[in-house]
C-alpha cells in the first residue's frame, strides 16, 4: 500500500541539513567581545620595563612609552612618582645615618639593612640608594671627606659587581645627587669620581661611556652639561693615565 506521506526531495533534504549546520555553527560561535580601553601604564611598570633594557636603549624606549601615558613624566634615572620617590629617599637617608652613626660597626649594619630592602625596590633604585647614601655619609660641611668615602665605597663595589650598566647607574646617581638634588659644591662631583677610580670601584670603560654616550642622557638634560664641564680635568687625567699605561 502506497504511503500518502510526501517524501522530501534530495535538494530539500540537503537544504535543511545546510540550514541546521549553519544554526549549529552560529550557536557555537562566541559572541564578539566589546573592546575595552587599556589602562594607563603605571610609573612602577614603566620603571620596571626600563630597568630590563640596556642603558644605551633606555632613552629611546622611554620615548615609546610616552604616548601610552601622556600625563605621566618618564625618566630613565629617577621615578616621577612622588610617593615612591619619597620612600626611595627615606631608605637612602636611613642608610646614610647607619654609615655615619658608628664607624666601627657601620658596614655590618649597612649590609644587614640592604639585605632587607634589596628585593623591595628595582635594581636601579637599589644602586642609587647605595651610591647616594655613601656620598651623603662621606660629607662634612658640604665637602667630601676622603677617608670616609674610601671606607664606604666598598658597599658600591659589592653591589655594582663590575657590571658596566650598574656602574653607569652609580655615576649618574652621583651626578643627580650633587648637581640636581643636594646642590653641593661641584668639587664633590670631581672628588667622588676620582675616589671611585683610585679605589677601583668603577671601571675606566664605565667612566668613558658616562662621558661619551649622550644617548643615555643628552647634554641638554638638567645638570648634564654642567657636570660634563666640571669633570673635564678628571677626564684629562684619565686620558693621561691611559697613555702612561700604554707606554709602560
UniProtKB/TrEMBL annotation:
Residues 1-53 are annotated as: Disordered. Residues 23-35 have a biased composition (Basic residues). It comes from the Eukaryota. This is W2 domain-containing protein. SUPFAM superfamilies: ARM repeat. Residues 71-248 form the W2 domain. Residues 44-53 have a biased composition (Basic and acidic residues). Pfam families: W2 (PF02020). It comes from Lygus hesperus. Residues 10-19 have a biased composition (Polar residues). Coiled coil: none annotated.
Amino acid at each position: 500500500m502506497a504511503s500518502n506521506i510526501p517524501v522530501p526531495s534530495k535538494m530539500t533534504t540537503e537544504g535543511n541539513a545546510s540550514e541546521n549546520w549553519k544554526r549549529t555553527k552560529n550557536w557555537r560561535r562566541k559572541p564578539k567581545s566589546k573592546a575595552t580601553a587599556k589602562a594607563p601604564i603605571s610609573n612602577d611598570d614603566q620603571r620596571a620595563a626600563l630597568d630590563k633594557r640596556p642603558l644605551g636603549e633606555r632613552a629611546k624606549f622611554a620615548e615609546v612609552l610616552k604616548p601610552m601615558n601622556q600625563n605621566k613624566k618618564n625618566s630613565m634615572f629617577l621615578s616621577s612618582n612622588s610617593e615612591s620617590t619619597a620612600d626611595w629617599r627615606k631608605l637612602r637617608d636611613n642608610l646614610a645615618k647607619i654609615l655615619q652613626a658608628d664607624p666601627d660597626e657601620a658596614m655590618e649594619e649597612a649590609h644587614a639593612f640592604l639585605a632587607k630592602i634589596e628585593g623591595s625596590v628595582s635594581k636601579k633604585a637599589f644602586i642609587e640608594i647605595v651610591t647616594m647614601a655613601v656620598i651623603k655619609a662621606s660629607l662634612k660641611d658640604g665637602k667630601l671627606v676622603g677617608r670616609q668615602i674610601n671606607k664606604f665605597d666598598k658597599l658600591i663595589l659589592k653591589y655594582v659587581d663590575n657590571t658596566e650598566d650598574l656602574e653607569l647607574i652609580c655615576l649618574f646617581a652621583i651626578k643627580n645627587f650633587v648637581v640636581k638634588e643636594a646642590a653641593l659644591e661641584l668639587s664633590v662631583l670631581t672628588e667622588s669620581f676620582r675616589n671611585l677610580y683610585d679605589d677601583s670601584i668603577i671601571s675606566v670603560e664605565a667612566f668613558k661611556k658616562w662621558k661619551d654616550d649622550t644617548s643615555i642622557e643628552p647634554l641638554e638634560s638638567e645638570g648634564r652639561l654642567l657636570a660634563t664641564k666640571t669633570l673635564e680635568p678628571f677626564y684629562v687625567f684619565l686620558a693621561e693615565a691611559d697613555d702612561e699605561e700604554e707606554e709602560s
